[in-house]
Amino acid sequence: MRKMILGSLVVLSFGALLSAGCAKKDVVRTEEPISAAQPAPAQTPSTQTAPMQQARPEAESGAAQQPITETTPSREPAVAQETAKEAGQGTAQEVQAELQKVYFNFDSSDLSEEARASLSKNAEYLSRQAGVKVRIEGNCDERGSDDYNMALGERRAKSAKDYLVNLGIASDRLSTISYGEEKPAVQGHDEAAWAKNRRDEFVIVK
């Protein structure tokens, strides 16, 4: 009888041990889901992408400012040209076109009434062009010696200069030169051609 009781106790103890061992294994299995549920740090990549998305608008805003600096210089010359026109400062071609020639009688450097009127208009225009300098070129027709015509051309240029100076144009803005009969305005051997060649011309030099 005792052997049966001891045998049953042994069997019960062994069964208890087995059940305890199985219980421990179940506990270990329940811990596995806990360790697998720790992927919380994986959220860090989402926080790193946020600054990159914020940096794009800055780059885009910086690129959008460049056209402003490119368009600004194109407007400045236009404003400068308008200012120059308002101040009465024309181009050299425009000033040259405004200056009138003057003509002389045969073998004379005296200024006629018509020549004085032309010089008065030239003086009025030059007074508005303070930075302009002019060379007065004296010319003659083909009659007479070369030396005589060179001297006559110089007297004609000097007559025009003196008249302009008397009208208020600074002497250092005016220079003179004689070409004698070397630069005829019109080719010909009659009075019509000679009358066009006895003249002073005004050339812008600055």
TrEMBL record:
Mind listing the UniProt keywords for this protein, alphabetically? Cell cycle, Cell division, Cell outer membrane, Lipoprotein, Membrane, Palmitate, Signal
PROSITE patterns from the entry? OMPA_2 (PS51123), PROKAR_LIPOPROTEIN (PS51257)
> Where on the tree of life does the source sit, at the highest rank?
Bacteria
Q: Where, subcellularly, is it found?
A: Cell outer membrane
KW Disulfide bond (keyword) present: no
Q: Which residues form the OmpA-like domain?
A: 91-206
Work out whether the entry's keyword set contains Membrane: yes
Q: Which Pfam families match?
A: OmpA (PF00691)
Q: What is this protein called?
A: Peptidoglycan-associated lipoprotein
Query: Origin organism of this chain?
Result: Citrifermentans bremense
* Gene it is expressed from: pal
